[in-house]
Design goal:
The protein is of the alpha+beta class. The protein is 36% helix and 40% strand. Helix 1 packs antiparallel against helix 2. The longest helix is centred in the middle third of the chain and has 19 residues. The radius of gyration is 16 Å and the shape is globular. This is Antibiotic biosynthesis monooxygenase.
């Protein structure tokens, strides 16, 4: 599958209204697009950050949806958004969660890796890291996203609640350190968010 992520920052005081619009109207608009396979909406209310992830069957569906909804999305996010970044990814490994909502937690790690080393990172994550991480209490879903051309990767992990997210930090850090060393990857950023919405559409 393929993923589009939209990372927006702005005034924390304006976040809640836009987040609610994205949770309701935004989700409905995405759901009506061909090839849609799910959505994640995550917030850092204290700092003023919103992250929207959408999942697609193929690259064509992802691109068409972006073009179809560009104007409406900009209007919906305008009251909050001061900066916005859009990235496209390939889902190399995906253990997607059942529907989650308020109370759940999300951790996002961005990594840099030489493009020639992407496959080593994928193999390391799937064969070594994933079996260990899946044993951590409270894990609800985890995915490895890659951008082969730009030598980038992202790992997103969902936890059933905030307590499980916090409790997992030490164990996950150990796994992450082992994996990045083995795959010659560099951690670029580490962030945690509140889950507003996380849905997955099963294949027919």
């Amino acid at each position: 599958m393929y993923v589009r992520s939209i990372y927006a920052t702005g005034d924390p005081a304006e976040l809640d209204g836009v987040a609610e619009a994205l949770r309701t109207d935004g989700h409905a608009l995405l759901s009506a697009q061909p090839g849609f396979r799910g959505m994640g909406l995550f917030a850092d209310r204290e700092l003023g950050k919103l992250l929207v992830g959408s999942w697609w069957e193929d690259e064509a569906s992802r691109q068409a949806s972006y073009e179809n909804l560009s104007k409406r999305r900009a209007e919906m996010m305008a009251p909050f958004t001061q900066t916005v970044t859009v990235d496209n990814w390939e889902a190399a490994v995906a253990r997607r969660a059942e529907d989650l909502g308020p109370g759940a937690g999300f951790r996002l790690v961005h990594m840099d890796v030489e493009p020639a080393g992407i496959d080593l990172l994928v193999d390391t994550f799937r064969d070594t890291s994933l079996p260990k991480i899946q044993k951590i209490p409270g894990l609800a879903g985890i995915s490895l996203l890659i951008d082969r051309d730009r030598g980038r990767a992202a790992v997103g992990a969902l936890y059933a609640d905030r307590d499980a997210l916090v409790a997992s930090r030490g164990a996950v850090a150990a796994v992450r350190g082992e994996a990045t060393a083995k795959a010659h990857a560099t951690t670029r950023s580490l962030e945690e968010f509140e889950v507003i919405l996380a849905t997955a559409v099963p294949h027919a």
